[in-house]
Every structure is written in structure tokens, then in C-alpha cells.
Design goal:
seven-stranded mixed β-sheet, 16 strands, globular, 10 helices
């Protein structure tokens, strides 16, 4: 397999130039080292085709020394933009659209935002595509809500790419390293797209969390649901629920699913997703730990808890709250084996042990690996 030409500058793909099976073996060794003391680690589930799997493509925009518009990723440990024309991991159609945007900008006299001076308009472009539906969203991240000749720009972009379903202007006027701001202005279409996953349709907004590798996500979530061994009468908690992906797939087997999520926009999407799929699931905005503490104080219990925390993992307080509900099964979806190992230690002290450990290669050519773990009360 040909090695990426900019891998030394980009730094995103730590496993570039390594045979794919060898990548899986290396990730297994990492999981075995960190998680082996907690139970038998299954071989890492890989992809048949590990290329162009990213359904979410983000490019930072800048100008080079000659004043030409460039876009791509930040060079490792810096905020210097590395020009990316082609990427082995990014969706091909998304890359085409970004190249078109670069081409259009000079004729519309759109100035690129300068992080040092704070002047300029366009900061980033984010493309999201539903692999199952084919729907495409373009998000233009700008330092101001005023986009010159926006109607003509949208018309020109859609002339080149009529397959685009919606175009959104995201306003990020803060001197920050965060990509997205909090305000979205729809320039064309509905302001969101939908995708199909595990038999459910999901609404995806510009800032929604949605797994970037849909092929592997199907396996990841189906594994999580299989581990949970759900019954119709089970009381299910989906902590860190995002837009309700795991919770709604679970709701097809259990009619008592409750999701908790801190991001209000994600909760809004989760509720709309439940309605769109005609599934009975309740979603609340708030802190999952506080929610479960309140449940325990009210004398309530849960049969199954799904948890899919960020890379920092969970907290000791969360583990205490979760175990107070005395669930029969806890299914932990982790994106960081190091914090997973720590959290499994906490659960073990509270009387829960790992029964199944299944790593999944969600991000080929990178050092990341996801893991699904089934826990239940120790005998």
C-alpha cells in the first residue's frame, strides 16, 4: 500500500506504511497489556477496506507565503496548516467539495482568517456525509455571520456539487482553538442531514457527535447490544448518550430506555431521532452522574447501563453512582484503553468484573482503538 506523502508533517496516522494486519496485531498487544488482567481480550475486529472511511472531514484554512489559499490539517504540535489535497482516510466526495471551495474563494474575495491578527472570515470547512443515505452537509466556519455574496457562493458551490443537501454557516468569533462556534445559520437546505445506522435513522447537526466510521460503528453498536442481552422489561440507562445512537438501537429490544447527555443540541437531536424512528425512549439534558445519584436516592434500579464516555474516561463518582443502581449488566464503550483499564479497576472494587472484552479498529492507520466491555456482578 502506497505511503501518504505528507505523513511526516501531518502526524495524524501513526501507523502509515505498516501492513494492515500488523496494525491490528499492534493494537491487540496494546489492549492485551492494558486490559488482559481484567479478562480475555478478543482479537481486534478490523475492516475489509480500511481506506476513505471518515464520514466527517474537517479542514483548517490558511494562506501560504505566496498568498494562495490552502487547507488541510495542522502540523503535529503546531497550528501551521499542512496542505492536504488527497487523504487516504477522508471521504473522497468530501475532499472534492473542499477542493472546489478552495477554488471558489478568490473569485468571491473571501478572506481567510488569520489566527495571529484575528482578521479574515473563513476559518474551517467541515463536511459530513451519511454513508447509507448519501446526504451531504457543508459547514463553513466563519469569524462573522456576514458572508459576502452568500447566495451566489451557495449557487456556485451547488452548481459544481448538486449532491449537497445542506450548507450551514457556523459563527466562531472567539480567539480559540475550538473549531465550531455556538451559532449556526442555515444558508441552504434543512440545516442537518440524516443517516441510517443499525436499522435506525439519525439526524446529524453540525455539532452532533456521530461516529466517523459508519462501517465499524455498525459492528461496535451491534456488539454492545449483543453483550447487553436485552429483555423487553429491562430498565436501560444510556449515559453520555449523544444523539441517542446506542439508546435508540437498544429501544428496539427494550421499551424502558432513558438517555442522559450534557449537550442540549445533542439531546434535541436524540428526541427528534426517537420520534422519527417511532421508538419509546426518553432523553434528558444533564449530568449523567447526578441523574443516576438521584435515581438511587429515589430507590430506583437499572437492569442495564450503557456508557460511552469521552477519551478522558469516566469518573470515580460516576462509577459509584452507576453501581448504586445495581445493574445486572454494564456495557462500556471506550475510545481509550488506558482510561478504560483505570475505570475497570474502579468497577472491580465496586463488585463488577469484565466478562467480555472486544476491541474494534474504528480508526485504521492511527494508534486509536475502541473497545466494548461487558461487566456484571462478580460471583
Amino acid at each position: 500500500m502506497e505511503k501518504c506523502k505528507i505523513t511526516n508533517k501531518c502526524g495524524s496516522c501513526q501507523y502509515q506504511g505498516i501492513d494492515y494486519q500488523e496494525q491490528l496485531d499492534l493494537k491487540y498487544e496494546i489492549c492485551q497489556k492494558l486490559l488482559g488482567d481484567h479478562g480475555r481480550v478478543q482479537p481486534v475486529h478490523g475492516m475489509k477496506d480500511p481506506l476513505h472511511y471518515r464520514n466527517k472531514v474537517h479542514h483548517a484554512f490558511a494562506t501560504d507565503r505566496k498568498g494562495r489559499v490552502i487547507s488541510g490539517c495542522y502540523e503535529a504540535n503546531s497550528h501551521r496548516v499542512v496542505m492536504v489535497d488527497e487523504c487516504m482516510l477522508e471521504d473522497l466526495k468530501a475532499q472534492e467539495i473542499i477542493r472546489t471551495i478552495r477554488k471558489l474563494l478568490p473569485s468571491f474575495k473571501i478572506r481567510i482568517y488569520n489566527e495571529d491578527t484575528g482578521y479574515g472570515l473563513l476559518r474551517h470547512v467541515l463536511i459530513r456525509r451519511g454513508f447509507a443515505t448519501g446526504e451531504i452537509m457543508v459547514v463553513l466556519v466563519c469569524a462573522s455571520p456576514v458572508f459576502p455574496s452568500k447566495n451566489n457562493f451557495v449557487k456556485a458551490l451547488r452548481k459544481e456539487h448538486p449532491e449537497i443537501n445542506t450548507i450551514v454557516l457556523n459563527v466562531n468569533d472567539k480567539r480559540t482553538s475550538m473549531v465550531l462556534g455556538t451559532r449556526n445559520i442555515t444558508l441552504y437546505g434543512r440545516g442537518f442531514i440524516t443517516d441510517l445506522l443499525c436499522g435506525c435513522r439519525f439526524r446529524i447537526s453540525p455539532d452532533s457527535f456521530y461516529q466517523v466510521n459508519p462501517v465499524q460503528t455498525e459492528y461496535l453498536y451491534n456488539t454492545a447490544i449483543s453483550f447487553a442481552n436485552l429483555k423487553p422489561e429491562d430498565v436501560v440507562i444510556d449515559a453520555y448518550c449523544g444523539i441517542g445512537t446506542i439508546g435508540l438501537v437498544a429501544a428496539k429490544k427494550s421499551g424502558k430506555v432513558t438517555g442522559i447527555e450534557l449537550n442540549p443540541e445533542a439531546v434535541k437531536d436524540a428526541r427528534l431521532n426517537a420520534k422519527a424512528n417511532s421508538l419509546k425512549a426518553r432523553f434528558y439534558q444533564g449530568d449523567a452522574t447526578e441523574f443516576m445519584v438521584k435515581m438511587a436516592e429515589d430507590g430506583q434500579k437499572a437492569d442495564v447501563i450503557f456508557m460511552d464516555p469521552p477519551r478522558a474516561g469516566s469518573t470515580k463518582h460516576f462509577v459509584d453512582a452507576a453501581t448504586k443502581l445495581q445493574p445486572k449488566r454494564i456495557v462500556y464503550v471506550s475510545c481509550n484503553p488506558e482510561t478504560l483499564a483505570r475505570d475497570l479497576g474502579w468497577f472491580n472494587k465496586m463488585g463488577y468484573e469484565a466478562k467480555k472484552i472486544q476491541p474494534v479498529d474504528m480508526f485504521p492507520f492511527t494508534g486509536h482503538v475502541e473497545t466494548v466491555v461487558l461487566m456484571s456482578k462478580a460471583k
